[in-house]
């Protein structure tokens, strides 16, 4: 199976601070030119900005890209997240706007960003299945849901992949979720493979960088996590590669059905990430990396407590 990456476009629309639109578009073009075909977005990234950006980038390249779109997260004009809506009528309404912003007739993968606790997953997936039948969606995905929800969704319509956070220091899905995916033949698009830049030592500097509110990046947690960052830097130096490349290579080594989603906002970041494709880790090296970087040692949860409580994948 060909080793590949996907390009996550969230960071191009303000989530990590301001970004350069021209550089973002150039990065998307460079990714396509280098063989990355899957672009991941959400209709709530920048309140529609991200889809408009991708639409401009793909104006003359639609046939080169596969589009994975998340929906359901609701935002207020000021940017605050105010809930999840995955009712059948809302599903179809959200897609109508996404198709217009993206400038396309269909999306390749459509998925609820989070489980709506007020709507049975069967109803949400059933609505997307109707969109598949009508030709507006090619395949159905899921995001951040647990084993029971995966089984219930797949019973309504085949699920192509689960998008979930997975990295050296976020290995929770291995215990209960990945075995179910393996059983059902469902792939993984793994986001947060660098733990939003934490593993490479990144620190939030802009006031609109949402990482400034994440437990792993703040206070004593950040100081404690520096030890893990230092270990990864040493391991990478020993192998003659960059820390980001080693972290991505580890995800690639964990299974042929796992595709890392890299959040490059610049061509330089993209180029560095692509270097991971040339790194082949033996089972012994994988084990050694995991032993040196035990996930149990990370300080802080991946989201704030309120958000963690709403994650079906954590239940």
Automatic annotation (TrEMBL):
* Cited SUPFAM superfamilies: NAD(P)-linked oxidoreductase
Keyword Oxidoreductase attached: yes
What superkingdom heads the lineage? Bacteria
- Keywords per UniProt: Oxidoreductase
Location of the NADP-dependent oxidoreductase domain: 5-292
What's the protein name?
A: Aldo/keto reductase
Organism for this UniProt entry: Hyalangium rubrum
Q: What is the lineage of its organism?
A: Bacteria, Pseudomonadati, Myxococcota, Myxococcia, Myxococcales
